Amino acid sequence: MPSSAGPGSAGPTGAGPVRYIVRAANDDGALANFVVSIRSDPAVRLVDTIGPSAGPPHTVVVETDPATAEEWKQRSRNQLMFEPDSPLSLF
Questions:
Q1: Dihedral (C-alpha) 6, 37, 84, 15: value to the nearest 10 degrees?
Q2: Domain boundaries, given as residue ranges, for the chain
Q3: Separation in Å, CA 43 to CA 23, 38, 53, 67, 71
């Protein structure tokens, strides 16, 4: 069954942005700093935050290109883990 292409569906070798799930490897402060920092980076769009409503998120979903995701990972000295977000399937 063909899937429709939507935002974030380009994949690692495609020209479009890819959605990534981002979380801190060990330091939750690294994720909080990342969320603040990407507000001034037009190459990264915050899609969603995941976590308790009364506290900071433990995970965020962003949309960016693979090179920018790798750059942010390196900037964080690997304190952030970037995983491509895959669409959920019932089958």
A1: 50
A2: 25-84
A3: 19, 8, 27, 10, 11
Give CA–CA dist 53/22, Å, rounded: 18
Task: pLDDT band for 15, please (50, 70, 90 cuts).
Answer: low
Model pLDDT, residue 14: 56
* Rounded Cα–Cα distance for residues 76 and 60 (Å): 15
Dihedral-angle region of residue 38 (phi above 0 means left; psi in -120 to 50 means alpha; beta otherwise):
alpha
Which element (helix H / strand E) includes 64? Answer: strand 59-64
Q: In the chain, what percentage of residues exceed pLDDT 90?
A: 59
The total of other beta-carbon atoms located within 10 Å of residue 57's CB is 19
